[in-house]
Amino acid sequence: MAAAVAAAACHSPARLVVDAVIGADGANSRVAREVGAGDYSTAIAFQERIRLPDEAMAYYDDLAEMYVGGDVSPDFYGWVFPKCDHVAVGTGTVAAKPEIKRLQSGIRARAAGKVAGGRVVRVEAHPIPEHPRPRRVVGRVALVGDAAGYVTRCSGEGIYFAARSGRLCGRAMADEWRLTGAVTEAGIRAGYLRRWDDEFRPTFRFLDLLQRVFYGGNAGREALVEMCADEHVQRRTFDSYLHKRMAPAEPWGDLRLLWRTAAAMVRCGVLGREVERLRRLEQQAADQVLLRH
Ligand SMILES: Cc1cc2nc3c(=O)[nH]c(=O)nc-3n(C[C@H](O)[C@H](O)[C@H](O)COP(=O)(O)OP(=O)(O)OC[C@H]3O[C@@H](n4cnc5c(N)ncnc54)[C@H](O)[C@@H]3O)c2cc1C
After folding, report:
1. pLDDT band at 1, cuts 50/70/90?
2. Distance CA 89, CA 84 (A)
3. Distances (CA, A) of 54 to 66, 118, 123
4. Which residue among 16, 21, 22, 25 is best mutated to probe the pocket of ligand 1, counting the most ligand atoms within 8 A of its Cβ?
5. Cα(122)–Cα(54) distance, rounded to whole angstroms?
6. CATH architecture label of 2-40+131-200
7. pLDDT, averaged across the chain
8. TM segments (predicted)?
9. Tens-place pLDDT, residues 187-233
């Protein structure tokens, strides 16, 4: 896209003169480094692609699985996602990057019965941006996709946003070029950055909030699982994913949802503490039996 806009004059394979550059080179973006776009913090995502026997694969015909719990991730979720002829089994974390292999063992253990007999065909580990870079447009250089930092928290979705930001940015440059015969920083900011932020910032912020509330501890995770059974939640989530922006507010339904969320978190927090207390009592009783013998 950049090349089309750039009206490039190629002097030699090592040197290319262009009017504008779109850095779409992923989380380790060389373009971002070259222009001093600044860093973002990253999560790590690890996944194994596993080819399953036919009958095991059939289980995932209409199903993708998401697992939560400290054994699979302290701050994100583990997944079994069906791809065309295999499943991707993985997990992600920001808080426990050095422990990613233990967490991967956790998700493998949870899904063990369903992926038994499978053959690992590829192992992948990659940084995932946690938020946009401090500077996404520097002069006539613009960053898109992972290079810019466009992965939503909570869901870890980045493919759509990479494609969408690339298109938006390319179109902004092409439009300005057509109108004025030049591409400028101000034009890229107005045609790409401002539009992007207007369209997607609320969604990114909302998903950031959801991740903080629901993945940070067991009470939040239990509440998340409980709420996912709610039809209102399912519909809102489905609509938001499908259209890539938050579904329009439904005041009464949303108020009820807020109330249910708070109630579920309190209930799950109380239950969690009670379970811990019972565990401690059980442990003390076991210790006393040991001492007596
Ligand atoms: C394990 C894992 C699972 C994921 N699961 C999902 C998911 O289920 N759904 C979802 O939406 N997102 C998912 N994501 C996130 C998603 O993959 C990324 O957000 C998305 O691929 C970003 O696209 P991109 O084009 O910006 O970057 P990339 O896909 O990283 O592409 C960048 C490209 O630039 C090339 N490149 C880099 N440097 C140079 C260079 N110097 N010269 C030339 N080429 C270069 C690379 O080779 C690469 O082809 C997942 C990520 C990981 C790590």
Report:
1. very low
2. 14
3. 21, 10, 21
4. 25
5. 18
6. 3-Layer(bba) Sandwich (3.50)
7. 88
8. none
9. 999 999 999 999 999 889 988 988 888 887 888 888 888 888 888 88
Contact 121, 50 (CB under 8 A): yes
Q: At 289, is the secondary structure helix, strand, or coil?
A: helix
Residue ranges per domain, the chain? Answer: 2-40+131-200, 42-129, 217-293
Has this prediction a pTM greater than 0.85? no
Ligand 1 test: best mutation among 30, 47, 128, 154, most atoms within 8 Å of CB? 128
Amino acid identity of residue 88, one-letter, is A
The per-residue pLDDT for range 40-68, each reduced to its tens digit, is: 999 999 999 999 999 999 999 999 999 99
Q: Which CATH architecture has domain 42-129?
A: 2-Layer Sandwich (3.30)
